[in-house]
Design brief:
The chain has 383 residues and is mostly helical. Helices cover 75% and strands 0% of the residues.
Length: 383
């Protein structure tokens, strides 16, 4: 009854309704979030609802990423009740997508975060490790963001949402590198995570030094995690190991750019700075991590193989090319057309990801490996 490795379970699933059903609300949140991104940019969009722009951040972070993260953790816990967490977070994303009052979605997000804390508590009771404690700290930040959304706008909640995503992903990456890190690494991770969490609290203080402290803490955690990540070794391999490693390393690079923007400039006071920290974290870091681990995470959720194919590089390359245009040329050099082209490219990348994944799942199901072979291949890929 061991720990999962990014969604690859060491024991078979119990009978029950397929967790993959909960990918539907996550997908709807993604579609609505991409539509909202176009609305915010002033570009033509399929649905031009005025309220979508203000909901873009929560749709993408809690409605989409939150549902994916909680679904993977619920599958890892192997308890039917654990699916309540992704169901509630997904329902919050659906509520925002359909234009229901923001308060309805907020309550669903709060309840979903509480349920996810219960899932992590179950995992911690099984493992009692510092990495799971870091994930609990991350979800606590998501819960704080959800509660604060009752009073504050997303701009003020940004450090809390960043803390959630970064701590959860960093903890997962550290778990994979246990054999490659010195003894006590997880305790150091927990200490760094506490510093980042405290930094998020300090950003609520009006003065700019709180934001700089948060940036410093985030930069320290990013550098320490990246230096010991197995991706630095795997990028020299071929196939899926190289693809996943490239996605990880690019993600760390964008996260460091966002952290340094906070450290140098304090609270983002311009559109360029805000654009850099938001999309450096949630597109450059988080979505790159999602793409890198899709062939490992999705099979455990959908109970179908997602074989590696070079076509997986397409959405990854388009994503980072779009970010480079948007942040590096558009925000950095003030070139408006590059900023707009970057938005279209990043939206295209996130549209391509599910299309490519579905195509590979359909093709992979025709020649599915045995469960034991699939688990062994996944562990070889990630270590």
């Amino acid at each position: 009854m061991g720990r999962s490795v990014h969604g690859v379970l060491r024991t078979p699933h119990r009978a029950g309704p397929p967790p993959a059903v909960l990918l539907v609300p996550a997908g709807l949140s993604l579609i609505a979030g991409l539509d909202a991104a176009l609305v915010l940019a002033g570009f033509p969009s399929p649905v031009e609802r005025a309220d979508l722009g203000s909901r873009h951040g929560m749709l993408m972070v809690l409605g989409f990423l939150g549902t994916l993260i909680s679904l993977e953790r619920a599958v890892a816990l192997r308890r039917p009740w654990a699916l309540v967490a992704p169901a509630l977070l997904g329902a919050g994303g659906v509520a925002l997508s359909l234009g229901l009052p923001q308060q309805v979605a907020t309550v669903l997000f709060i309840d979903g975060c509480v349920a996810l804390l219960a899932v992590y508590a179950g995992l911690f009771a099984r493992q009692r490790d510092e990495a799971t404690a870091v994930e609990i700290l991350g979800v606590s930040a998501a819960l704080a963001a959800s509660v604060l959304w009752l009073r504050l706008d997303v701009y003020a909640l940004l450090p809390w949402l960043v803390t959630y995503i970064v701590l959860v992903i960093a903890a997962e990456r550290i778990e994979l590198a246990r054999l490659h890190r010195p003894q006590g690494s997880e305790r150091r991770l927990l200490a760094l995570a506490v510093v980042v969490f405290v930094g998020a609290v300090l950003t609520l203080i009006p003065s700019g030094w709180g934001a700089r402290a948060f940036g410093l803490a985030l930069a320290g955690l990013t550098a320490w995690t990246a230096i010991g990540d197995v991706a630095r070794k795997n990028v020299r391999r071929t196939g899926l190991p190289r693809f996943s490693a490239a996605a990880m390393l690019l993600g760390y690079l964008w996260l460091l750019v966002a952290a340094l923007t906070w450290l140098v400039g304090g609270r983002p006071g311009s559109l360029a700075a805000y654009d850099t920290v938001v999309h450096g974290v949630f597109l450059g870091f988080a979505m790159s991590m999602v793409m890198g681990h899709a062939p490992i995470i999705l099979p455990a959720v959908i109970r179908r193989p997602l074989p590696y194919h070079p076509v997986l590089w397409l959405p990854l390359i388009v994503l980072h090319a779009g970010l480079l245009l948007r942040v590096g040329v558009g925000d950095g050099l003030g070139v408006g057309p590059a900023w707009g082209a970057g938005i279209w490219l990043t939206v295209s990348a996130l549209t391509l990801l599910p299309i490519v994944s579905v195509a590979l799942v359909v093709s992979g199901h025709r020649a599915a490996p045995t469960p034991a072979a699939g688990r062994a291949a996944a562990e070889r890929t990630l270590t």
